[in-house]
């Protein structure tokens, strides 16, 4: 009856009652719920991991098939399959380094050839300038009086040629005169040695 009588009291009076309600022990329930929740979370995580693994395996099989390999073949696992790409990447890097070395060597060769050509052009230009300067010096020396020396040399050469021509002409004249004299003396000798005609002797008495 007391409980029925107290039923109509306000909540504040019920909570402030001198006979509080008996508390239920919560420690065992909380421990059981925590264990169940942990197992549920582990199960959920395991299921998520399994789903991700299955999706990854399907993607891997599709990738292997796309590259023309059999995903069910023996030894066609992730390690062996991706090692192909690793080897290819290493070979590509080696080829890239080799090409870079060749490019640097080619650039050095072109630069050396350009420098050599530049030096040769500078040397040829210097020689050309020296020749032009030499010609200028020769021309200026001609202006300074070397022309007279050249004229003297030319005249001396001509005089020498004329003297030689005169000497040759005199020698030829002497030879001609000697031959003429020798031929004339031969003719005189022939004239002096000619036998006079014989006079017939008279025979018989003169009447």
Automatic annotation (TrEMBL):
Residues 105-121, 149-172 have a biased composition (Basic and acidic residues). Residues 1-15 have a biased composition (Polar residues). InterPro entries: BEACH_dom, FH2_Formin_sf. This is BEACH domain-containing protein. Residues 173-185 have a biased composition (Low complexity). Residues 1-22 form the BEACH domain. It comes from the Eukaryota. Residues 1-20, 105-207 are annotated as: Disordered.
């Amino acid at each position: 009856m007391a409980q029925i009588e107290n039923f109509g009291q306000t909540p504040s009076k019920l909570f402030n009652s001198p006979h509080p309600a008996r508390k239920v022990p919560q420690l065992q329930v909380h421990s059981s719920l925590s264990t169940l929740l942990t197992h549920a979370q582990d199960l959920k995580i395991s299921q998520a991991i399994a789903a991700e693994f299955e999706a990854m395996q399907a993607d891997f099989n599709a990738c292997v098939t796309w590259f023309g390999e059999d995903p069910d073949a023996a030894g066609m696992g992730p390690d062996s399959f991706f090692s192909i790409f690793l080897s290819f990447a290493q070979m590509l890097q080696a080829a890239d380094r080799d090409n870079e070395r060749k490019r640097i060597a080619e650039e050095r060769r072109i630069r050396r050839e350009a420098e050599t050509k530049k030096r040769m052009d500078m040397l040829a230009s210097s020689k050309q300038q020296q020749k032009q300067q030499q010609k200028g010096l020769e021309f200026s020396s001609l202006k300074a009086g070397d022309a007279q020396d050249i004229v003297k040399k030319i005249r001396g050469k001509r005089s020498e040629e004329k003297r030689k021509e005169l000497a040759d002409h005199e020698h030829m004249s002497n030879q001609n005169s000697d031959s003429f004299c020798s031929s004339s003396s031969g003719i005189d000798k022939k004239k002096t040695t000619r036998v006079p005609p014989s006079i017939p002797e008279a025979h018989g008495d003169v009447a």
